[in-house]
Amino acid sequence: MEGLMRPDQLRGCIEAWATQETAQGRLPAGAWPVLREALYTGEFPRAALPGLLGVGERQARNVSAALVRAGALNAQSSRAPLRLTFSARLAGAVSVGVIGLLPVPSRQGDIEPILTRSTGPGQQ
After folding, report:
1. How far apart are CA 53 and CA 7, in angstroms?
2. Rounded to an integer, what distance in angstroms lies between the CA atom of residue 28 and that of residue 63?
């Protein structure tokens, strides 16, 4: 599986995305530490956010709400723990360099590795 997914590069891709979104004003400061926590723990209680970020509850809620709106975090309910999610928007930004060679069947029925790459409309 590690040959298929490159977990060592996932952290860097998520950090780069969060840093870019924060610099462009689409995410508030503190987004990356929250995403890092979700990446490493799987899920975490919302009550942990103020301590993680060193801010008050209101600012912590603003950060988590922005990440939910961006499709980076989700939860079963408004009080449930937060967990990392890969919405279509986030997956496209983060998957570059993370997904490697995927085996796919060829016409002869053999399995051949191909480099997966997402392309936009009009791109080859």
Report:
1. 25
2. 6
Residue 87 has a CB neighbour count (10 Å cut-off) of: 13
Please state which of the ranges 24-33, 51-60, 61-70, 91-100 shows the lowest mean pLDDT: 91-100
**63: number of Cβ within 10 Å:** 23
- CB-count burial class (<10 Å; 0-12, 13-18, 19+) for 8: exposed
Residue 92: per-residue pLDDT: 67
In the chain, DSSP assigns E strands to 43-44, 73-74, 82-84, 101-105, 111-115
Residues with Cβ within 8 Å of residue 66, at least 6 apart in sequence:
27, 28, 31
Q: Helix (H, G, I), strand (E, B), or coil: what is residue 9?
A: helix
- Give the pTM: 0.71
